[in-house]
Amino acid sequence: LGRLALNIDSSVGAPLMAATRDYASTVLQKEWPAMQQGNPQAIRKGENSALQPLIVMSDIIYSAENLARLPTVTSVQLGALVTRVREQRLLRIDASDFSVSIRGQILACITLLASSTILSLAFLTKPFGQCLSNFLLYFVTLTSFYLAYSAQNPFAGLDAVSSAPMQEALDRLINMRLTR
Questions:
Q1: Which pLDDT score, from 0 to 100, does residue 20 have?
Q2: How far apart are CA 40 and CA 98, in angstroms?
Q3: Mind spelling out the 3-state secondary structure of 106-159?
Q4: Taking the CB of residue 144, how many other CB atoms lie within 10 A of it?
Q5: pLDDT at res. 123
Q6: Residue 135: CA atoms inside 13 Å, Cβ hemisphere, count?
Q7: CB atoms within 10 A of CB 31
Q8: Which residues of the chain are under the pLDDT cut of 50?
Q9: What does the CA dihedral 99, 103, 109, 114 come to, rounded to 10 degrees?
C-alpha cells in the first residue's frame, strides 16, 4: 500500500500513506503487546486495536471521489491489498487467542496422579527412591505442562513470532516520500 501510495495522485496517495503509517505504528504499539499477552479480547473490544487506522485506509481507498481519480487497475489492486491486510489482521488476532481447556488441565492432573500412584506402588520398600521418583515426576510433569501452555501463544511462546518485519515495514514507510 505504501509503495502504491507513492505513485498515485497525491490527493489520494498522501492520506493513504499517512493512514498506512498510522496503521503499522498502531499495530506495533497496541495490538502486538496485547497479542503477546494472549489478550485478543482487548483488541476485539477496541481497547488495543488498530482497527480505526484500518477503517481510515479503507475509507480512503473506497471513497467515490478517490476511485474516480485513480485508474481502475490501481483501485482494484488497492482494494485487494486492504482486504488482505484486514484478513491477516484477523488471523493474527485469532492466533493470539490461546488457553488450555479445563479438559486438558483435568487430563494432566489425572495423568500426574496415576503416574505417581504407580511409582509409589513400585517403590513401597524403598522410601527414598519413592520420594525421589515422585519429586522428579512432579517436576518433569509441571515443567512440561508449563512449556506446553507457554508454547500455545505464537506471539509470546518459546519460539515467538517476531515483530521485527512489521517494524522494518514501518521504518520503510516512514522513509518513503511521495513522488507526485
A1: 94
A2: 9
A3: HHHHHHHHHHHHHHHHHCCCCHHHHHHHHHHHHHHHHHHHHHHHHCCCCCCCCC
A4: 11
A5: 66
A6: 6
A7: 25
A8: 180
A9: -140
